[in-house]
Structure formats: C-alpha cells, structure tokens
User: Fold this.
Amino acid sequence: MPVIMYREAVRDALAEEMRRDPRVFIMGEDVAIYGGAYSATQGLLQEFGEERVRDTAISEMAITGAAVGAAMAGMRPVAEIMYVDFMTLAMDQFVNQAGKNRYMFGGKTTVPMVLRTEGGAGRCIAAHHSQSLEAWFVHAPGVFVVMPATPYDAKGLLKTCIRDDNPVLFIEHKMLYNNKGEVPTEEYTIPLGQAVVRREGADVTIISYSRMALRAEEAGKKLAEEGVSAEVIDLRCLKPLDIECVLASVKKTGRVVLASEGYKDCNFVCDLMAKIQEFAFDYLDAPIERVCAANVPVPMSPVLEDEAIPRADKIVAAAKRTLGKA
Amino acid sequence: MGTVKEVKRKKAAKPAGGEFSKEFLVGLLRRMMEIRGFEDKVFELLARNVLQGASHVYAGQEAVAVGACSAIDTRDYITSTHRGHGHSLALGADLKLMMAELCGKATGYCKGRGGSMHIADVKNRNLGATGIVGGNIPVGTGAALACKLRKSDSVVLCFFGDGASNEGTFHESLNMAGKWKLPVIYVCENNLYGMSVAFERACAINDIASRARGYAMPGVIVDGQRVLEVRKAVQEAVAFARAGNGPTLIEAKTYRYRGHSRSDPRVYRTKEEEAYWHERDPIKLFREDLLKQNAITEAEFDALQALVNEELAAAEKFAVDESPYPNPAELHDDVYVGWVEGPKGLVRIEQKG
Assistant:
C-alpha cells in the first residue's frame, strides 16, 4: 500500500471529490496559488482552475457564510479557515447559520458544506495559532466535528464529509501534515461516527483524538513495557460520537483516561466523562482521569508550550493513577 | 384580477419603460396591502397575547420588498432579515402558512420551529430570514456565487437594514461580491434606526449607497416609499447582474412605523417625524397614483381592502384556531440529515428518499 503524507491525503480527498462531483469547489485564504498555508491544497488550482479553487480575501465571515449560501443553493463548498483560532471570526456564520438553518427552516433545506481548518500546538506560534477549540463546536447543535489523526483517516473521512448533507467542521492538526501513513490507491470512505481501537488492552482505556490519539498510542506502548495493558481508542469524530465503542471498552477495562489538546475547563472530554458515568457508572473501578491542555493561552516558548499540552508521559501517569500505581 | 402570486413569480418581465397593465399595478398594491394588513394583524395578536415571542413588523417599508421582488422571477433567490415578513410575502408566501409559523404551529412554513425571525421557503428560493443583524449578507453572497458557478443567469436579492451595513459581514461580503462580480443585488432598507439608535448617531457617513464605491459596484439611492421606483432600480440592477457585470448596492430610504419590537416605546424619535413619514406612506402614495391614472377606482380599492381583510381573517382562523402545535415528540427531528438524537447521543437513521 502506498505511504503518503497527511497533507497529501487531504489533497487527494479534495481532488477525487472534485473530479467526482462538479458541485464541489474550494475557497479560502491562500488555497489556490500558494496551495494552502499547510500545503493541503497544493496542485488543485492547476487541475481545477480558478473557478473551483478560489483564493479569497482575508474575510472569515464571508468565506464561511458564502459557503452556507452556496450550499443552500445547490453547491458543495469546501471552505478553508486557516487556523481554528480564526473560527472566532466565523463563529456566527458557522454556528448560527450553517448549523441551525435546517432545523429552523423546518427540515426543508440542507447545508452540505465542509469547513476545513487546522488546530493544535507544537510550532511555537503562540496563543492565536495553537488552540484546540473543538469543544465550542461540539456544543453547537446542527454541525459535525471530525478530527482525523492519520493520513488514512484524513482521506477517508474528508471524502465522506464532502458527500454528507450536514455542515462539518473538519479539524486537521498542524503537527500531523507531514506524518506518513498507508493509504490505499483504490476508492474508500470512512463512515462518520466510527471510532477505531488503535490498541487492544484489558486494564485501562485511553480515549483520544487528533494528535493526542498518537500520543495515547505512545502511552499505550510505554504502559505495556511496564506491564499495563491499555486499550487505546481514537474517536476520529467527536460528533457524531461512537459512544458504543467507548462504552464497550469501558465495560471491559473499568478504568478510563481521556486525553485532549483542548483547554481543561469545559473540554470536549468533560462531556464524554459525563456520558461514561451516565451509561457505564457501574463498570467503573476508578475515577475517570482527564489529561488536557493547561488553562492558559498557549505560550510561545517551546518549554512552556510543551508543558501546556499533554505529553505521553502525562497520559501514562494518569493511567497508572487509575490503577492505583501512581 | 390576477393573483399577486402569479404576477410576482411570472417569468416574463414587463417591457422596460412600457405601460404596466392594470392587473400588474393592482397586484403590487394588493401585495403591499396584504403585508400591511398582516403586520397590523400581528400587532393585534401580540397585544392580545395570542402570539408569543418577538415579531419585528415591516409596516411602512412595504414598497421596498414588493418593488424589489417584482423585479425578479422564479430563477432567483432572496435572503431576508429579522424584519422579514414583508420579504416573504412579497415573494409570494402564503398568508396562512406565514401566520401559522408566527404562531409556532406545525402547519407553518418551518413547522413552528423558526417563528417570526426565521421564515424560509427554500423550495421557492426564499433562503430565509435570520435573527442575526447582517447574518445573511454572506449567505446571499454565497448563493450568488453558486449561481455564477452553475453558470445560470439567476440572481440573489439580499435584503438587510441600515444597522447591518455597520456589521463586518456587510463589508466582507460586498468586497467578495465586488471582486468576483457576483450576481447579487444588495437591497439595504435604511429605515433610519437600528433598534433605538438613529443611523446618523451610529454611522460615519450619511448615505450607505456611497459605500458601494469602496467595493467596485454601483450604489443607488432610491425612494423606498415609491414601489415603482424601487422596482425600476432593482430591475436595472438585475439586468446588470444577469449580464455578468456583478453586484449593485441599492439603498432604499424608508421608515418603520412600529417600534423595533412590541416593547419599544419609541422615545428616541418625535411624533412630527412619524407624521412626516405617514404622509409618505407607500400604500397611500401608490393608491393615489393609481387613482390618478384610473388604474383603480375608489370602489375597487375598497373591494380590494375588503378582500385583503378576508384573507387575513382566514389566515388568523387557520393559524390560531385550526392549526395544531407541533408534536413535542418531534423536538429532535431535522437537526441533522440522516442522524437523530437517541438516548446516548446521535444515532444514524435511514436516509429519506
């Protein structure tokens, strides 16, 4: 199976869907000539031309809202917001218009759009370019939130999102773009709302997504060296959420660690924690642990940035606490 | 007399500069009277507490929606605002379904989920109203982008108010439409107040239309109390857009008669100012014109008023007395396509159709 980079997987998904469906088009800041701030739209302008690959002004509200209007009028826009931090500027258009129009209008419209963005820390670019804000969007009814960790998932899920009739926030991770992974050449898609068990185990369940899913796997390996059998789940989609996969694992292990790069307070995993205690309380053998980003604006200095976001060793420590081995 | 719906949505445009048929002119008048009557009825129902929630009524601005929507046809889209009843009705919305929606009934345009501020009829190309000031300017712009990408000759009428012209969405969207020459007609209804704050107290410039220059599009000021003047300005803009020349910003100077909402005592403006605008009432002015041209007689006007009153009584009866509320069991329907809220969160359902 060919090995390609995460950003190539994103690009390939876009290209394949654009070839398949003339309604699909791309717009955003620096997506055309430059090929995307993280090179995820490289070469698309050359293949599809300026009509379908559109450089926009730096206008997050207009980019997002225009995607809403174009979607309602029959197109399938894939708009790009360069950093999830800039979603602050697009918030109304995505949450109030994209997410609500179908319901408010009595189910008589659809808003089939994808808003691609990327988030996460790791490049020392500080508090306006390093956040993980997915919790805000999981909170909002009417939109999906998808956060792939591997090239395989990035491609398969992005293709599904483009074909889906719901508005989707597709959050890539800036530290994953150069990661390589196996991606089949033949056509495939990945259904929304399906988590994947990256590592099977019996003692503790570590649940994560996006870059932290890789760190969770790393933690799982370290734990194995210390004789702890960790099951590692990559959610891939935060909404729709594969709660059944989570609950099955929790029922098996009775111990849970949740890892996320978002701020600790009101993190997405807080909701997951609530769901686990609602539906699997009797199976829990220890308090649920969460390993999240510190409640501070993500700092620039590499030392501070590293301290602010979860590392594998912190996940390992949390897993041990659930086992009384701290 | 043809129904207004037929007149408004007929594909054949009237010959430019030619005489209008009596049928057409009376159709415009009737639609304005229906909107006024609807809004008066809404106010009455609010006062009687039959209607819940907020309703921002359009009374006073009828010539803008009716004139503008008379210049487009079934190819075209509109986007509306929180003060949007007039836009929907001008496009041909059914009074009964409108009133039912305001009452939160299952028979309303949006099954009672949207109410006054969220009426849409996407099938008939009304992309809907929004509760966010300026919220639909990007959406209308995006619909125009879709028209262009599909290589259709459809256009979008994007309505918003003076208040919205100070939102970032206005500037970002007009820049986008100006640069990409999108087939959108921005119809800014300057009714002089953003809730209580007079436009002149809030804005650095006098005429919103002058902002068009900054976005490389024509800016037109039109008397928003004169339905045929609005129609003419929009017609020109529509022709301009269909020919691939891009957007136009039309500023219609108008006035809202009622307060911003029912709780507004209107302390921020004078009785004299209100009286001035009532003298320039769009229905009064157009009625006088039609009487002068013998397009309508006093008796015909009275008969028309009686007909409109009957329609509104029927709409009230349908909405208030005959329509059921939505079934609470359907609370979660239609948030997503293909997924529904289950006991543990979203679960996939069979796709319809």
Q: What stands out?
A: Residues 3-182 of chain A form a domain with the Rossmann fold fold (CATH 3.40.50.970). Chain A has a mean pLDDT of 98. Chain A touches chain B through 53 residues (CB under 8 Å). The longest strand of chain A covers residues 256-263.
